[in-house]
Amino acid sequence: MVEKKSKVKSQKSKVEKTKTIKPPLTKEEVLSLNVGDRVLINGQIVTGRDKIHKFLFNERPKIEDIPFNLKGAVLYHCGPIVRKTEEGFKLIAGGPTTSIRVEMYEHRIIPQYGIKAIMGKGGMGRKTLNALKENGCVYLHTISGAAVYLADRVKRVVDVWRLEDFGMAEAMWIFDVEEFPAIVTMDAYGRSLHEEIEKISYGELKRLIGFP
Amino acid sequence: MIELRDGIFELYRKAATSLPPDVEKALRHAHEAEEDGSNAKTALSAILENIRVARETERPICQDTGVPVFFVKAPNGLSQPELKDTIIEATKFATEEVPLRPNAVDIISDKNSGDNTGVGFPIIYFEESPDSALSIKLMLKGSGCENVSQLYKLPFEELKAERDLDGVRRCGLDAVHKAQSRACPPYIIGIGIGASRDQVTRLSKEQLLRRLEDTNNIEVLSELEKRLLNEINRLGIGPLGLGGKTTAIGVKIGVNHRHPASYFVDVSICCWANRRASLIW
Fold first, then answer.
1. B239 to chain A: closest CA residue
2. How far, in Å, CA of A10 to CA of A36, rounded?
3. In angstroms, what separates the C-alpha of A54 from chain B's closest C-alpha?
4. Contact A26, A3 (CB under 8 A)
5. Residue-range domain boundaries for chain B
6. Is the ipTM of this complex over 0.90?
């Protein structure tokens, strides 16, 4: 028990640095990020969730057919609540959605469109982890459920794509963000904090249900 | 039923924007318990700030305003079809005005209806009540956490789970371990045990309506709720799932009689944003 606790603690003690990142990101910037680093994002980020991923994976639209430049982008797994006002779109709430649902798509979308950071919650699997390593990309975990807190770090809704056919939650939005917080939980060196936590919790699970 | 429609609209607004005080209190305790400077503590600070700002600015706590689930106890003589129409009207109004995120998607056309109504959407469970008052409880169940909820059939050899309460304990631990951080911990866990699948999934969800301070009036279940909560928190998943002491803030268990051949256990996992509200009319 004491041992387990100290293992969990050691995850924490690795968290020390806060870095500011500004998309579009370069490979060098990505390689300077390690699991445990806290980041603040300034600039533009792009949203995409289930439908966008299915669409990009199956239809493979050409880069020039997408109105946004995804090269070096931070792709945020988010289905926001956006209100249309006279002054334009206004973000009401926009926290992360569960990333694992797009596990079967992400590994090919990362290299095809030059994505340099994936942001969401809950982490992703081996396929994505390998793609991060092969292409110089990171996974950022932001604050689960903190939809209003995070929306207040979005200064402006810049634009939207496929709103008509995909709907509010599934469209691709561009947000201009300021000091948008996240933690690097999967890096370009093949390390995944999610795998590490899962391993620790599995050890404890086995102990609690009396398995050898 | 215009007045009732407005009452249900208020129920939506309250559930979506203002977290119940017992849940907020438990998150505050969790925040105090985590170590200074840890990811867990930093995350809980942001979550508490999020809860405060959502309430003050009357905005939804989470962008996923979920699947609305109504538990209705209606007095004898009240028309259920009329009540259903009123709920649907209030849902459309709330989607526009709160606002809620439109979440109802047609299976065939894959189109979002845009107003949170559709076939079987919202979910409404009616029951006739001997009371003269109408009681409506609303839960906004986020789908991230609905996706990681698990149904078990006992015995289940993989977990050495037999047909007894210790088997139920094993299922609870396994479901949380499988969920890891995908469903926004710290979690609230509802467990339903009984004879058939449809019954236990509803029963486990109903447990999520119980206040966290609420003690089970069946002593062995009350003990099991405490033990499971303690053991889940030893899994070390933590707030955000990046390690920490608090993986869950509540476990609630409900039981029905079972068939000799069956022992179904459903584990409903709820994110920290356990959004619920109720009204008596």
1. A144
2. 11
3. 13
4. no
5. 2-13+61-141, 144-275
6. yes
